[in-house]
C-alpha cells in the first residue's frame, strides 16, 4: 500500500494540507478551500464519478454560504482530482427544544485514478475540523 505523508500549513488563516509521497519526498497533492474558479473542474469530477449532477449555481451557493466546508484536492499539475462539500443547517435538537447547527455531507468524490491514496480521508478530516470551527455540533 502506498502511504502518503501529510503536512498541514496555515497562513493568513487559510489552511492547506500538502500530501507527500514518502518514497520520493515529492508533493503529490494539495488540499485547500475551493474557490470560484475551481467549480468547473469540480463539476467535471462530479459528472465523471457520481450518478447525481448538480447545476453550477448549486456549487456556487455552497461555496458562497459555507466556504470553510468546501474543499478540493489538486494534483501536482494543479488539476482538481477530488472534492468534498458540506452545508450547515438549523435543525431541531433531539435533546431539547432548541435549534442547533447540523452539518450535512452534500457530496464527496475522488477521480477513479486517484483513489486508494487517502485523499478522501484527508478531505473528510480537514472538512470536519473546519465544520467544528463554525460551531456546528452535529454531522450527518
Automatic annotation (TrEMBL):
The N-acetyltransferase domain, residue ranges: 29-140
The UniProt record lists the keyword Transferase: yes
Native organism taxonomy: unclassified sequences, metagenomes, ecological metagenomes
InterPro entries: Acyl_CoA_acyltransferase, Ard1-like, GNAT_dom
GO molecular function: protein-N-terminal amino-acid acetyltransferase activity
A single Gene Ontology CC term: NatA complex
Organism encoding this protein: marine sediment metagenome
PANTHER family: N-TERMINAL ACETYLTRANSFERASE, N-TERMINAL AMINO-ACID N(ALPHA)-ACETYLTRANSFERASE NATA
Keywords assigned: Acyltransferase, Transferase
Pfam families per the UniProt record, alphabetical: Acetyltransf_1 (PF00583)
UniProt-recorded name of the protein: N-acetyltransferase domain-containing protein
Amino acid at each position: 500500500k502506498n502511504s502518503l505523508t501529510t503536512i498541514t500549513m496555515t497562513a493568513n488563516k487559510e489552511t492547506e494540507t500538502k500530501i507527500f509521497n514518502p518514497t520520493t519526498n515529492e508533493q503529490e497533492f494539495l488540499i485547500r478551500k475551493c474557490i470560484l474558479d475551481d467549480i468547473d473542474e469540480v463539476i467535471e469530477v462530479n459528472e465523471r464519478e457520481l450518478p447525481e449532477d448538480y447545476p453550477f449555481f448549486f456549487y456556487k451557493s455552497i461555496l458562497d454560504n459555507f466556504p470553510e466546508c468546501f474543499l478540493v484536492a489538486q494534483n501536482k499539475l494543479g488539476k482538481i482530482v477530488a472534492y468534498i462539500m458540506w452545508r450547515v443547517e438549523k435543525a431541531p435538537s433531539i435533546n431539547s427544544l432548541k435549534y442547533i447547527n447540523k452539518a450535512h455531507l452534500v457530496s464527496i468524490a475522488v477521480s477513479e485514478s486517484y483513489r486508494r491514496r487517502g485523499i478522501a480521508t484527508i478531505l473528510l478530516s480537514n472538512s470536519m475540523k473546519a465544520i467544528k470551527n463554525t460551531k456546528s455540533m452535529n454531522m450527518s
